[in-house]
């Protein structure tokens, strides 16, 4: 498994350095809009094609689910059973086209309905976050030891996407001081990676896609973070393409947040 992870890290880094960064620096990538209103560029598609081909060479028996596939193709990959790669070739496309230097490559291996290998690569900062289930978190190849954080919600800083929360919960959070502060990086992958690295204490998101959280979830759990949906169920408890996300650096924070996310669940 370590050898496989090493190969995947090389693929992620080559994608970031050879495809994403040159296009970001030139800002010549043609962009279009998807049916859901999100932005896609030719760089997204080029990066996904490169990753898919490289992963297939590693093991052609492993399936593939990428963000830039049709929903029909994604659902087929999800429900076919067996192992498959879950890939976001360019997470943070909105930032990429702004241009704002916050985007990443995200690759996860899903086996028996859960991630077992993951890497998220930040080409701007040349940071690689990776993990194998049960082996802990690695940052640039070095084992990372999480620093115990017993912060209460009132003292926490984390990542929240207000536009994907239901109005009642968004209003509650915007009008009352439940936490110290929040950020929205515009890239789910880096928010997961930074949470795992202790650069924030929570993630709150009303609905991430599978490719948004597949890799990051494993990184976070290997760094001893607590992950669930807004009802306290694990995002991989059932097969689905999207899920509300609550991730925290300790159980106390998770418990405090679950009391608040019940507002979203009932609104």
In brief:
The protein contains eight helices and 14 strands. With 267 residues, the protein is α+β, with helices and mostly antiparallel strands.
Structure description:
The protein is of the alpha+beta class. It has helices spanning 2-26, 42-58, 71-79, 93-96, 167-175, 188-196, 210-222, 251-266, and strands at residues 31-33, 39-41, 63-66, 84-91, 104-111, 114-122, 127-132, 137-139, 142-144, 157-161, 181-183, 202-209, 226-228, 242-248. The chain has two domains: 2-144, 2-Layer Sandwich (Fructose-1,6-Bisphosphatase, Chain A, domain 1), CATH 3.30.540.10; 153-266, D-Maltodextrin-Binding Protein, domain 2. The chain has eight helices and 14 strands. Strand 3 (63-66), helix 3 (71-79) and strand 4 (84-91) form a beta-alpha-beta unit.
Give the tags:
8 helices; 267 residues; alpha+beta; 2 domains; D-Maltodextrin-Binding Protein, domain 2; five-stranded mixed sheet
- Shape category: globular
Quickly count the helices: 8
Report the CATH architecture of the largest domain.
2-Layer Sandwich
Global structural class: alpha+beta
Written as H for each helix and E for each strand, in order along the chain, the element string is HEEHEHEHEEEEEEHEHEHEEH
Q: State the share of residues found in helices, binned by percent.
A: 25-40%
Task: Report the sheet-strand fraction.
Answer: 25-35%
- Largest sheet, strands/sense/barrel: 7 strands, mixed
Question: How many domain regions?
Answer: 2
Q: Kindly report the average pLDDT value.
A: 93
**Spans where pLDDT lies below 50 across 5 or more residues:** none
Rg over C-alpha atoms, rounded to the nearest angstrom: 18 Å
The CATH topology of the largest domain is Fructose-1,6-Bisphosphatase, Chain A, domain 1
Count of DSSP E strands? 14
Strand order of the largest sheet: 3-4-5-6-7-8-9
The fourth-level CATH homologous superfamily of the largest domain is: Fructose-1,6-Bisphosphatase, subunit A, domain 1
Q: Which CATH class of the largest domain applies here?
A: Alpha Beta
């Amino acid at each position: 498994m370590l050898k496989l992870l090493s190969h995947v890290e090389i693929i992620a880094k080559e994608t970031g350095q050879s495809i994403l960064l040159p296009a970001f620096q030139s800002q010549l990538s043609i962009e279009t809009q998807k049916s859901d209103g999100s932005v896609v560029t030719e760089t997204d598609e080029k990066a996904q094609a490169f990753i898919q081909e490289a992963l297939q060479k590693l093991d052609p028996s492993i399936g593939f689910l990428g963000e830039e596939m049709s929903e029909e193709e994604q659902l087929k990959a999800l429900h076919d059973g067996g192992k498959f790669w879950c890939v976001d070739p360019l997470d943070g496309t909105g930032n990429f086209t702004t241009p704002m230097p916050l985007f990443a490559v995200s690759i996860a291996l899903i086996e028996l309905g859960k991630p077992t290998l993951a890497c998220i690569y930040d080409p701007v900062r040349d940071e690689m976050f990776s993990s194998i289930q049960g082996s802990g978190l690695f940052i640039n190849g070095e084992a990372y030891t999480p620093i115990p954080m017993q912060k209460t919600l009132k003292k926490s800083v984390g990542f929240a996407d207000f536009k994907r929360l239901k109005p009642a919960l968004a209003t509650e959070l915007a009008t009352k001081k439940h936490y110290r502060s929040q950020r929205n990086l515009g890239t789910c992958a880096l928010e997961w990676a930074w949470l795992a690295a202790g650069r924030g204490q929570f993630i709150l998101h009303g609905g991430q896609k599978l490719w948004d959280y597949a890799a990051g979830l494993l990184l976070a759990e290997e760094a001893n973070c607590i992950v669930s949906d807004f009802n306290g169920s694990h995002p991989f408890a059932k097969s689905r393409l999207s899920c509300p996300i609550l991730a925290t650096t300790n159980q106390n924070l998770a418990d405090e947040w679950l009391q608040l996310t019940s507002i979203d669940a009932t609104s």
